[in-house]
Structure to design on (438 residues):
């Protein structure tokens, strides 16, 4: 592939007239328009309006866009439009590489939905499933293959996946694939692909590693930036609670009772904690289930299928679903454990507020975790609002206008001018405010 010396975005389509475009103006066929109507795609998102026309022209495209902006359709529609009719056992014409098993299933299902009425076969290849079943399906033929790099490379080494017929290659969530160590596998795959292929790369960030990948394996790509100025979207209301560790579960129950979420994800830091919280919640919330990396793939697939169908209203999860899961009905995110990495906060919160919908996120912060909260606020350039539920505020006993805030409520509290000023909690917002100002 020819080197790319300049990856400066040619335009920022999110601020252009693309936002008012119609699918009929993007150059798609009448068959596709009928499929889009069936799938209830009424108007293209900025990502779709920017990527689809260029992809239909056969150009390489590097698009910077976060999850939840309609990325899958932005490459799924051009793939379906550019497929050629071939024999049943012909090699695949399009390959989509994704970082996780869950995202592979999601992309396959979305392309299936967009190909309504046609006989396009889309196959998902990922680990955790018997490879023999996938081999049988590959032998029968598939026009589109969606897979994780490790399993795709496995099939290539066995000779069960042939790439010589590829017309299009998509790297979805490229930054995430590089973060989790897939760079060698991706490069091995790309070197085996036809040099005349079209390449689309979608990434939430264009870090130096992503830029090097584009320079090496793409041909004069059109670079489009759909990212927001800040790390999270304005449609997500973000709050925090200061709470003692021992009271977090009781606060969670009260919060869910108050909010009555349409669908919610509760993020925990550990697999063991996820199991424990789910077991306790299921006694009060029958629609609760959990997902984490120690579960068998079949169980994970079953949970995600039920969650997408709306059968599960409350999902307790580790960061295995922190990226790449696009379920439009999620109204609430609860960070039961504050994430260890600030970027993980962005990806967790991004599960709600999808495609411009409103969403709300709550983060539980113990008094010792004030610095973690500050780092998150600096990353997103926004202060989280403090929320409180009666009985769960972490406050030193201090007298108020009608008496002390302690449990006794005694009337002999110090007078207003005699009230001692409480020392700020370790890591509290009062103690941190001067650091943020600096």
């Amino acid at each position: 592939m020819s080197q790319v010396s300049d990856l400066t975005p040619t335009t920022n389509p999110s601020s252009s007239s693309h936002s008012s475009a119609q699918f009929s103006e993007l150059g798609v066929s009448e068959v596709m328009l009928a499929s889009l109507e069936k799938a209830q795609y009424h108007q293209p998102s900025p990502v779709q309006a920017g990527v689809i026309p260029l992809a239909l022209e056969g150009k390489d495209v590097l698009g910077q866009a976060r999850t939840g902006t309609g990325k899958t359709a932005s490459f799924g529609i051009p793939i379906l439009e550019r497929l050629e009719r071939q024999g049943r056992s012909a090699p695949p014409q399009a390959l989509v590489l994704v970082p996780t098993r869950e995202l592979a299933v999601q992309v396959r299902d979305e392309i299936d939905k967009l190909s309504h009425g046609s006989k396009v076969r889309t196959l998902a290849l990922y680990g955790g499933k018997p490879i023999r079943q996938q081999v049988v399906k590959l032998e029968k033929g598939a026009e589109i293959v969606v897979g994780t790099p490790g399993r795709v490379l496995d099939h290539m080494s066995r000779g069960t996946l042939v790439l010589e017929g590829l017309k299009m290659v998509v790297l979805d969530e490229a930054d995430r694939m590089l973060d989790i160590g897939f760079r060698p596998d991706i490069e091995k795959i790309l070197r085996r692909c036809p040099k005349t292929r079209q390449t689309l790369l979608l990434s939430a960030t264009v870090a130096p590693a992503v830029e090097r990948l584009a320079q090496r394996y793409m041909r004069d790509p059109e670079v489009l930036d759909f990212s927001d100025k800040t790390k999270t979207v304005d449609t997500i209301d973000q709050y925090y609670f200061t709470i003692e560790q021992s009271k977090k579960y009781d606060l969670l129950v009260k919060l869910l009772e108050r909010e009555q979420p349409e669908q919610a994800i509760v993020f925990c830091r550990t697999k063991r904690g996820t199991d424990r919280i789910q077991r306790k919640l299921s006694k009060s919330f029958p629609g609760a289930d959990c997902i984490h990396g120690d579960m068998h793939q079949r169980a994970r697939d079953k949970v995600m299928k039920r969650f997408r169908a709306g059968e599960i209203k409350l999902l307790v999860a580790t960061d295995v679903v922190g990226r790449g899961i696009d379920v439009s009905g999620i109204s609430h995110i609860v960070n039961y454990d504050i994430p260890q990495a600030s970027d993980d906060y962005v990806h967790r919160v991004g599960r709600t507020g999808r495609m411009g919908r409103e969403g709300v996120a709550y983060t539980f912060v113990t008094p010792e975790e004030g610095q973690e909260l500050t780092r998150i606020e600096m990353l997103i350039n926004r202060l989280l609002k403090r929320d409180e539920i009666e009985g769960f505020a972490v406050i030193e006993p201090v007298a108020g206008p009608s008496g002390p805030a302690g449990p006794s409520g005694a009337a002999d509290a110090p007078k207003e001018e005699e009230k001692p000023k409480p020392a700020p909690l370790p890591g509290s917002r009062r103690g941190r405010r001067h650091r943020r100002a600096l």
